[in-house]
Amino acid sequence: MEILPQDISTKQLHAYLLGSIAPRPICFASTVDSEGKPNLSPFSFFNVFGSKPPICIFSPARRVRDNTIKDTLENVIATKEVVINVVSYAMVQQMSLASCEYPKGVSEFEKSGFTPVASTLVKPFRVKEAPVSLECKVLEVKAMGTEGGAANLIICEVVKMHIDDAILDENQQIDPHKIDLVARMGMDYYCRASGESVFEVPKPNLSLGIGIDRLPLSIKNSEVLSGNDLGILGNCTGIPIVADLQDDERLINILKTYDTDGVLKVQVLHQYAKELIGKGDLDTAWQVLLSE
Ligand SMILES: Cc1cc2nc3c(=O)[nH]c(=O)nc-3n(C[C@H](O)[C@H](O)[C@H](O)COP(=O)(O)O)c2cc1C
Question: Do residues 48 and 136 share a domain?
């Protein structure tokens, strides 16, 4: 399927974009209006863009339905302040409730049952239940259009961070398993960053990986190894010199059994190596791969 934005309705384009650009982090934005009345609403057009100065941007867009603008945008234009709270799994249902279009002046803190806590450098409250809250000054509000669906980029500078001690590890770093964040996907879907969904991809900072282009041809063109397997091998700093795996019975068996069928032998060796890569045993994987 190919799409030119001008050929489909904004509503449909919106759905395709939100289904594709996902999962998106959620900015649970707390603002106050010019009279100090609180507002709390989620926005997944959101990210961090730098740390010196620390910059976050989120976007309350013009409603596609009727081209009206959101209270959060009005509040931010009036007060130039916001507290961005991140959203953990434990908060997701209440956060969703806070996205209802309550009339201006109704506090979503009350409706959604979150606890407001006074901030120290800005007027809007922070959310007590959030694992991290960012007190922000708004540097600029940039309207990207005037029609329904147009973004309004709220460019914020973080002036103070609040981090719940309970999400820190022993090195005082944020533990991705403890923070248990949720993110927004297309339609009504969310995803939870926990369990096996949270995984590491080791990246050597000082030493360069050899790259997939430098892998031996039979490995690079393998019918068994996946793109992820090749990525892991290409991230190694060199092709190791192989020692004989005298005591690896499986390898010895493979070499014996498929001695006369080179093509099948390579496939079976690659299958074995794939399993080893999956277990993180790269040394043995290389030895298996290079023994063909
Ligand atoms: C998880 C989630 C993410 C959302 N992200 C956005 C967004 O990025 N931009 C937007 O304009 N509306 C977004 N919405 C819808 C707004 O939260 C909703 O329009 C809300 O009523 C706005 O409140 P306000 O008028 O009090 O600012 C999102 C809703 C949910 C539940």
Answer: yes
**Does residue 251 have its Cβ closer than 6 Å to ligand 1?**
no
Mean pLDDT, residues 220-245 taken together:
90
- 223 with 183, same domain: the answer is no
Report pTM: 0.93
Ligand 1, closest atom to CA 75?
A: 27
- Cα 241 to ligand 1 centre (Å): 56
pLDDT of 184 > 70? The answer is yes
The CA–CA distances, whole Å, from 30 to 25, 81, 275 equal: 16, 9, 48
- Asked if residue 21 lies in contact with residue 33, where contact means CB atoms within 8 angstroms, the answer is no
Query: What residues pair up with 134 in beta bridges, in sequence order?
Result: 84, 161
CATH of the domain at 110: 2.30.110.10
**Count of the separate structural domains present in the chain:** 2
